[in-house]
Description:
By secondary structure, the chain is an alpha+beta fold. It has one domain (13-227): Fumarylacetoacetase-like, C-terminal domain (Fumarylacetoacetate hydrolase, domain 2). 17% of the residues lie in helices and 32% in strands. The protein contains six helices and 18 strands. The strands form five sheets. It has a six-stranded mixed beta sheet. Strands 6-18-17-13-14 form a five-stranded mixed beta sheet, with no helix packed on it. The protein has a three-stranded antiparallel beta sheet with strand order 10-7-16. A hairpin with a 2-residue loop joins β13 and β14. The longest helix has 11 residues, at 177-187. The N and C termini lie far apart (40 Å). The mean pLDDT is 96. Bound molecules: manganese (II) ion. Residues 30, 79, 81, 110, 197, 199-200 line the site of manganese (II) ion.
Amino acid sequence: xxxxxxxxxxxxxxxxxxxxxxxxxxxxxxxxxxxxxxxxxxxxxxxxxxxxxxxxxxxxxxxxxxxxxxxxxxxxxxxxxxxxxxxxxxxxxxxxxxxxxxxxxxxxxxxxxxxxxxxxxxxxxxxxxxxxxxxxxxxxxxxxxxxxxxxxxxxxxxxxxxxxxxxxxxxxxxxxxxxxxxxxxxxxxxxxxxxxxxxxxxxxxxxxxxxxxxxxxxxxxxxxxxxx
Length: 228
Ligand code: MN
């Protein structure tokens, strides 16, 4: 390898449950409005239109117990999500083949500067400042699919200070896990290390500094966070 003129950026690595080896992150894709009841609460038609995607930065993902409240927002929302991590990739992946590309799953939060997102939507501007900010995607340790299979049903929930805010089921996804991979691979060449956040059920809302956030997905795991 040739020398670099500045130090190379650190790779982004996520913990894997039960082993010392970590999962290296390449890209982060997120699915918008993938649960009908969340689409409705955001003022949209929940019918099965083609899915849409946005991205976060690889280094927005982290294993940790603290979420630092970001700058320049007064309305930061939680979104509990099932996270898929890929060990394979390609273009135009078939629905039948898609789940063979998944290494494992985690519980994650797609933190969102909702005030900046609302403003961006009104002005037809991009979402990066609303979605791809520092530490915007805390996740639990990954659990390999070889251990738990592919979670297509089961409770997904989020609590703030012990109060249940989101309560859905993975079977409410408009676009299922395999379909998400298939659709995304029409737009982008997927590769090992890609991570996909699969959307959130209804009940999104704000956090403030000092809040304790607990997120869980049946059969996948739990994530506990303090907003600092
Ligand atoms: Mn989301």
